[in-house]
């Protein structure tokens, strides 16, 4: 089984960290291929960057020439998952939805701890669209930018831990979701500080993607995510959708 996992920004070190985290939970025989978009911002922290990332991720996937069995979009609250589902005939898993759905198996309510406050509405909207807000206790911001997770890791861990504690103590969350692909591998530190289960979206997405492939399931194509209709696409960087669907 080969799973493509797409970083939504152009920071190569973050792509490597996402891939390393994914491999830690991948089953024997599952190959994880981490990919970085060819264009876009070095971090995604707003709507403009998110929409740009959506195009870049779709572009990267449709230009990938080897067979693959599933795709993971490794951006928290980012746009684009629906477009990938139209373009591909393999399962597409978004880490935002993967983390939240997994959290609901582990406790009554969950909270998301993310980066900047401006990203909170994007995450809330993604969870609402996915029907995952009924048991959402809160979405909290650590106040740090995505790139600070790498440049100042000690400060990042301290801020994430503090917001996680407040989510548990004040918002009554029983599970914490780490709300950024760049937070991969922080689970142990946050768990020790809070005493609750910690869900990393990258790892949750890998296990969900593997399960869908093993069950032979993929996106329904009868209506919402039917392939794009053949038409002329002018000036778009992607290979035209009329070139055909990427496939196993």
TrEMBL record:
<dbReference type="InterPro" id="IPR052186">
    <property type="entry name" value="Hydantoin_racemase-like"/>
</dbReference>
<dbReference type="InterPro" id="IPR053714">
    <property type="entry name" value="Iso_Racemase_Enz_sf"/>
</dbReference>
<comment type="similarity">
    <text>Belongs to the HyuE racemase family.</text>
</comment>
<dbReference type="InterPro" id="IPR015942">
    <property type="entry name" value="Asp/Glu/hydantoin_racemase"/>
</dbReference>
<dbReference type="Pfam" id="PF01177">
    <property type="entry name" value="Asp_Glu_race"/>
</dbReference>
<protein>
    <submittedName>
        <fullName>Asp/Glu/hydantoin racemase</fullName>
    </submittedName>
</protein>
């Amino acid at each position: 089984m080969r799973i493509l996992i797409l970083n939504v920004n152009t920071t190569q070190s973050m792509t490597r960290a996402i891939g390393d985290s994914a491999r830690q939970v991948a089953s024997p025989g599952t190959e994880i291929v981490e990919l970085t978009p060819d264009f876009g911002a070095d971090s995604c922290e707003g709507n403009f960057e998110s929409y740009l990332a959506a195009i870049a991720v779709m572009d990267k996937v449709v230009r990938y020439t080897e067979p693959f069995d599933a795709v993971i979009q490794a951006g928290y609250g980012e746009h684009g998952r629906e477009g990938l589902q139209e373009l591909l005939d393999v399962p597409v898993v978004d880490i935002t939805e993967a983390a939240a759905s997994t959290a609901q198996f582990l406790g009554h309510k969950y909270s998301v701890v993310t980066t900047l406050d401006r990203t909170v509405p994007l995450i809330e909207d993604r969870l609402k669209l996915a029907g995952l807000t009924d048991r959402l206790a809160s979405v909290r911001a650590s106040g740090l930018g995505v790139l600070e997770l790498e440049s100042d890791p000690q400060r990042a861990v301290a801020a994430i831990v503090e917001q996680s504690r407040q989510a548990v103590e004040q918002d009554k969350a029983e599970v914490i979701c780490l709300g950024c692909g760049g937070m991969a591998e922080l689970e142990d530190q946050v768990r020790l500080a809070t005493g609750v289960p910690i869900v990393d979206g990258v790892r949750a997405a890998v296990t969900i993607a593997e399960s869908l492939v093993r069950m032979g399931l993929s996106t329904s194509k009868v209506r919402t995510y039917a392939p794009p209709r053949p038409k002329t696409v002018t000036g778009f960087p992607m290979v035209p959708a009329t070139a055909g669907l990427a496939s196993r």
